[in-house]
Amino acid sequence: xxxxxxxxxxxxxxxxxxxxxxxxxxxxxxxxxxxxxxxxxxxxxxxxxxxxxxxxxxxxxxxxxxxxxxxxxxxxxxxxxxxxxxxxxxxxxxxxxxxxxxxxxxxxxxxxxxxxxxxxxxxxxxxxxxxxxxxxxxxxxxxxxxxxxxxxxxxxxxxxxxxxxxxxxxxxxxxxxxxxxxxxxxxxxxxxxxxxxxxxxxxxxxxxxxxxxxxxxxxxxxxxxxxxxxxxxxxxxxxxxxxxxxxxxxxxxxxxxxxxxxxxxxxxxxxxxxxxxxxxxxxxxxxxxxxxxxxxxxxxxxxxxxxxxxxxxxxxxxxxxxxxxxxxxxxxxxxxxxxxxxxxxxxxxxxxxxxxxxxxxxxxxxxxxxxxxxxxxxxxxxxxxxxxxxxxxxxxxxxxxxxxxxxxxxxxxxxxxxxxxxxxxxxxxxxxxxxxxxxxxxxxxxxxxxxxxx
Length: 454
What we know:
This protein has four domains: 3-107; 137-186, SH3 type barrels, CATH 2.30.30.60; 192-272, Alpha-Beta Plaits (2-Layer Sandwich); 298-433 and 441-452, Sandwich (Jelly Rolls), CATH 2.60.120. The protein has 15 helices and 16 strands. Strand 12 (355-359) and strand 13 form a beta hairpin. Helix 1 packs antiparallel against helix 2 and helix 14 packs across helix 15. The chain is 47% helix and 20% strand. A five-stranded antiparallel sheet has the order 4-3-2-1-5. Strands 9-16-11-14 form a four-stranded antiparallel sheet. It is elongated, with a radius of gyration of 50 Å. Mean pLDDT is 78; it is low at 27-32 and 431-442. The chain is α+β, with helices and mostly antiparallel strands.
């Protein structure tokens, strides 16, 4: 205890008693003087502070700590001091000012109730601290964990418990929180266990590794010899076998230092025994897309092109060029492939499945494998004249203007042959479409030449 806290109240008390004595001209107590009463009360208050602190020093520091070799809890000392202060101050008020203690207690009931409500949380911390002390839940020097807080107990006061975290910070946890939440205690007098995980190469037998790890950890300062530490296989990771080292220590507050020393000792032990700590390993496999069984290759598309009558005038090399530039399209059952009135510049050949040709919402034809549609958009760029809907799942080959244009640019006379084939097909389709628009005045040939810039 700081000596100034003990002797200062004593000197102040002597000074005030002297002032009262000289004011009363040798009489210690003057009943008719209010100033003397106040000075006398202050003098007694100073004396009470000295007496309580002296009692705390003699009883707890000299008798309990030195004779019984036990350090008295701070919370107990504070409670005893509060009780002594309350009793002695009440006695001084009663004797000096002539107030009855019973009357003071009666008139202070309402005030006590108000103060009790106002100090509800403070009183909760006080009683929680008393309960923790009576249960002997932990002692100074123990490590406790509450929630996410972990630290060493430095003192237990009437309001809260002082913890020193492993970052060397002081954290004050209210006693009511400790009494309410889950509390994990690592006593200094107890053998507290720690488990560390180490990854080791798969090629080293576990029996060899376990012996090396256990021997290395057992020689670290702070690891208890009362219970032997041991190692075991903890699991199989991606790149290594995971081993667990379990050791015991009395001083859990040193766990970070002991963990680091154990890992260091293990590194050297593995190096001495030519056992490697493996690097992470990954196995890479090149992605191979699944085989598209229903997609035609170039040879299949070439066969389809040769079966299209409007393209029959083209030479074999032209068919090969168009087949190389063609694109495969897949449509689900019920999906609309072409819509009436939409712009387009390509035609489609049905490779698998069946489509429905609809004019004005009514089906006028069905086209199957090898048949085609949309040729007028490819050759002249005119808008689609019908709705094409997939009756089944459909695989179609699309031929665009960009694929056909180089062929017609090289051999412009092919446009005449193609226009003749288109005229034959148009005559057949016109017979299927009731109320269709009449053929434009320009011939098919002139429209093809104009569209392709021939």
